[in-house]
Task: inverse folding
């Protein structure tokens, strides 16, 4: 009798705990849709991607959306597939390389052969409920040999979503990252030349 | 027809109806008598203030049993006191003895702890502590504070006199070898005698411990004494550290003597050391004069003969020195000494004093002099050392000159020439050692050391590079920290959810749907 009562109790608990149906989360993988040359790269890589620092509030799984003035919220069902600190770095590396036509190293083991280093800091990178995506970043190119700064730019841009929903938001955020990469690529010194153009 | 004949009965003298008022009157009388017989006593108590006393409300209690209530509160004619009148129950009559005590119970914080907390809510009441004397008293003098010792407690009452008011207060414990055996009941300053009098009550059966030779001392807290004999630190028991107290015992080697009676007076010593200090009835006083600094010499400093204490310094006679006016002639400073023959094992008698006086007078002729000595390097206290001096020169510059002469003589006696020869040989050895060191420094192996150090530094640089901020290791550490941050953030979210809804660990919380960003048209 006692066992039967226990069984009912467990069944009741299970029934209660399974009350709400949680929707399946959507994961977004941040990768640059570019074609890079496949095969062995030259060991003599002159440009490297150094530090890519991301604002602390972006260090969470959910896609961040501004819900009001100074208010943000991380989505619970729309998540990044991997930490942004790594994926943004990879994305920028590929996107800058594609746009500049130069191989950009993101491997710090090769840093001794770098002539120039790109450091990026992303201060804001989120969407808003009224259909906007926003990216504020600062980047600088450093001459590794003497530690001098060749160029430093502040990048600030917004874009409107093409459709409702998170898919469109992530697409717009990606486009903003591309614009940042293009900005950096346009200012990179050409390989073999000195950065006399800055 | 028969004629009815009325039967005639004689009329009663007292109508039955009169029984009613008679019974009523008897009942009334009975009620009056009953009320009179059951009426409790009415008493008056004089208090210095009526704080916490209200007519018709404040109750008289004993052992928390209600005995009566205050009926009136009035001022005396000279407005110096308050007269409280209270009506008590009849059963309280035996409690009103000659030595019964009354006091107002209100919240108090004292050395004995916190008391009367219950009266915060219930209001104050007057407590009656019944004594053992004859019953029937109607007028009482109320106490400002609860009595430390209840009336009629078996024990012994003694009084202590002290020149200074220490940290002893009423209610403080009286300790015998650390055990509480009584309490300090009263503290009073006697303006005429310029002393403080403490009333102590020693509970039975410990009252037998107090005898004529018992000494009492202030056992309050910490005593730090720095004198010529060194630094002494005495700590009392934890209770005495916190609330102070008085301790008593017999000094070492002293017989107890006869037991004392109530009201005996004792001296209160400042500390245990002072209480243990032996006192001698017979002594001789000497004056010695120092024409040097008497820094560190204080009253009570020991006077020693070759290390054996024979007396103490009574005081520095500064008043006497300046009484004739300051002459600017550099007169020596007189110091009064008290020599006690009993300290040397002689009997504490006048005869011993005479013998000692003669011995010292004879000694002075043969060069017995008093010198200032260092009693304690730490405290800088001085003692007086009495000893025979070869050519009884006065202390001061002459002595320093003699010491300087002795020092020069010792320097003369030093074997300086062999020492200089040894020093020469040592210098030759040092020269050859320096030559060897030069050779060592010039060798190829030594020269190669900087190169090796350079190589090591280069390797060290490479190793440190691996941990530089843009290195792979730093990247890996940074990523690990990022993961850790992420985990902690998730944990924080979980904690927040659980604190908002503790049962969410079993019952799933309501699903919150992400707000959807809307395209701007």
Result:
């Amino acid at each position: 009798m006692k066992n039967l009562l226990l069984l009912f109790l467990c069944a009741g608990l299970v029934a209660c705990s399974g009350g709400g149906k949680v929707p399946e989360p959507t994961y977004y993988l941040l990768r640059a849709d570019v074609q890079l040359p496949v095969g062995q790269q030259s060991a003599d890589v002159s440009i490297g991607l150094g530090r890519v620092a991301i604002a602390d509030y972006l260090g969470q799984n959910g896609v961040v959306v501004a819900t009001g003035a100074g208010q943000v919220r991380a989505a619970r069902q729309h998540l990044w597939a991997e930490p942004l600190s790594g994926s943004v770095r990879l994305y920028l590396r590929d996107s800058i390389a594609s746009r500049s036509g130069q191989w950009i190293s993101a491997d710090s083991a090769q840093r001794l052969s770098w002539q120039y280093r790109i450091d990026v800091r992303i201060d804001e990178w989120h969407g808003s409920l009224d259909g906007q995506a926003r990216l504020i970043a600062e980047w600088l190119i450093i001459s590794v040999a003497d530690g001098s700064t060749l160029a430093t730019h502040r990048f600030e841009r917004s874009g409107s979503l093409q459709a409702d929903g998170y898919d469109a938001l992530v697409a717009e955020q990606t486009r903003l990252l591309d614009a940042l990469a293009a900005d950096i690529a346009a200012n990179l010194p050409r390989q073999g030349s000195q950065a006399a153009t800055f | 027809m028969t004629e009815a004949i009325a039967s005639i009965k004689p009329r009663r003298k007292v109508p039955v109806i009169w029984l009613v008022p008679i019974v009523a009157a008897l009942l009334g009388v009975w009620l009056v008598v009953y009320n009179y017989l059951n009426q409790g006593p009415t008493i008056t108590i004089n208090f210095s203030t009526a704080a916490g006393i209200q007519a018709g409300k404040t109750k008289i209690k004993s052992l928390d049993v209600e005995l009566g209530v205050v009926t009136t509160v009035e001022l005396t004619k000279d407005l110096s006191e308050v007269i409280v009148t209270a009506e008590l129950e009849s059963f309280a009559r035996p409690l009103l003895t000659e030595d019964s005590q009354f006091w107002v119970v209100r919240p108090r914080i004292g050395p004995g702890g916190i008391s009367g907390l219950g009266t915060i809510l219930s209001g104050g009441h007057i407590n009656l502590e019944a004594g053992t004397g004859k019953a029937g008293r109607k007028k009482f003098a109320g106490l400002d504070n609860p009595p430390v010792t209840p009336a009629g407690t078996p024990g012994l009452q003694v009084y202590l006199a002290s020149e200074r008011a220490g940290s002893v207060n009423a209610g403080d414990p009286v300790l015998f070898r650390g055990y509480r055996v009584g309490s300090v009941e009263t503290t009073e300053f006697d303006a005429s005698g310029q002393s403080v009098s403490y009333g102590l009550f020693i509970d039975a059966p410990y009252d037998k411990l107090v005898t004529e030779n018992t000494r009492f001392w202030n056992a309050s807290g910490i005593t730090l004494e720095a004198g010529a004999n060194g630094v002494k630190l005495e700590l009392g028991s934890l209770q005495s550290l916190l609330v102070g107290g008085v301790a008593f015992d017999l000094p070492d080697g002293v017989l107890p003597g006869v037991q004392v009676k109530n009201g005996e007076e004792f001296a209160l010593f400042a500390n245990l050391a002072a209480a243990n200090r032996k006192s001698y009835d017979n002594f001789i006083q000497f004056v010695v004069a120092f024409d040097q600094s008497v820094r560190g010499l204080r009253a009570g400093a020991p006077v020693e003969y070759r290390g054996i204490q024979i007396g103490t310094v009574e005081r520095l006679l500064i008043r006497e020195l300046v009484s004739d006016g300051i002459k600017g002639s550099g007169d020596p400073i007189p110091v009064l000494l008290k020599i006690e023959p009993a300290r040397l094992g002689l009997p504490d008698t006048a005869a011993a004093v005479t013998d000692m006086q003669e011995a010292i007078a004879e000694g002075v002729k043969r060069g017995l002099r008093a010198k200032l000595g260092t009693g304690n390097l730490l405290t800088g206290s001085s003692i007086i050392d009495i000893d025979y001096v070869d050519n009884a020169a006065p202390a001061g510059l002459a002595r320093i000159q003699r010491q300087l002469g002795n020092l020069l003589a010792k320097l003369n006696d030093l074997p300086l020439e062999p020492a200089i020869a040894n020093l020469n040989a040592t210098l030759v050895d040092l020269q050859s050692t320096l030559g060897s060191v030069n050779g060592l420094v010039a060798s190829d192996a030594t020269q190669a050391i900087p190169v090796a150090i350079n190589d090591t530094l280069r390797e060290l640089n490479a190793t440190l590079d691996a941990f530089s901020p843009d290195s792979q290791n730093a990247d890996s550490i940074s990523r690990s920290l990022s993961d850790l941050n992420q985990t902690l953030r998730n944990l924080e979210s979980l904690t927040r959810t659980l604190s908002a809804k503790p049962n969410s660990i079993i019952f799933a919380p309501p699903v919150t749907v992400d707000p959807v960003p809307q395209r701007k048209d």
Notes: Residues 155-276 of chain B form one domain. Residues 395-401 of chain B have pLDDT under 50 and may be disordered. The two ends of chain B are 138 Å apart (CA to CA). The first strand of chain B starts at residue 42 and ends at 47.
